[in-house]
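Researcher: Re-running this chain for the archive, since the previous output was lost when a drive failed. Same request as before.
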Amino acid sequence: MRTGKRGLVALGVSVVCAVTVLAVPGTAFADPGPSPTRTATPSPSATPTAPAATDGELEAVRARLDRLYRQAAVAADEYNAAEEKAKKQSAELSALTGKIADGQRELAELRKRAGAAARAQYRAGGLPDEARLMLSENPGEFLDGTGRVLQGQRAAKGLLARLARTQQDLETYAADASAQWTRLEANRKAKAAARKRTEQRIAAAEKLESALEKEEKERLAALERQAAEEAQTAWLDTGVLDKAAGRATERGARAVAYATAQIGKPYVWGAEGPKSFDCSGLTSQAWAAAGRGIPRTSQEQWRQLPHIGTGELRPGDLIIYFEDASHVGMYVGDGRIVHAPRPGRTVTLAGAGTMPILGVVRPDA
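Model: Regenerated structure tokens:
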């Protein structure tokens, strides 16, 4: 058996144990050994072969794969959310760093001016004003000069107050930057943990699939198609689309055009184009191309975008799947979605009812 693209982890080992009937040859019962004077030549026909998996066993494999890829999707959403937060936090930290640098330059200039003012006041303050008035040859000029001195003193007080405010601002910026750095580091750790969980689930799924023979993989694919067709038929039979005749808005049409233009490109978790996508990377980029920014992850798309009834569907709406909002596809009309399904698959069209629907959101409501 091949090992897949990544090293196997403990989770992958436990998965393989669940399907040993598919991967381990049956027990061979040998004939009595040859006589000491003869060397037995093994017959090719004696080589044991593994029994073919039953439909029930393959159905169990399909359910297990679905769970693993859903768990991977949840972890990937956590990674994407952490990545978005990290970008925002890095930008905020950069802005704070710029403010600190500007404040330090301003503080240095204010201190320089305050020092010059203090030195000037010291040089002019050797005698009391009464004595300087009596010794002055021109009392009028002296009184004018005294007024200017008072103005200078008021300016100096203002300068010192501004210096104190700048110093306080710098301390605030520094504290904010320290807190932002702490949050950024915590978010980086969360992102790394989410990456690890995603890769573990995908590796386990790949290991499980690699244990199947070619004929078993073909039967498994047929079971997947059958389950999807049955789910889609059951969904349509509810009459949910009987009144869903809404036309796409101009932006909705542009979003659909972008998403469908990506059909055939591979799913890669965490990717948002242009060469590969994950499910929410596809929908967020499609709406960005239409001029409407939406959240990056399927969970945030469900949380932040306006909800509508399933019977009100129109092209461009986003259908959110599963109770944990771990998958999203874009409705394109005629009961179909375009979506990036999972690792090993490509962006494709599918029936909108082939997965359990949590609800529908409308980016351009």
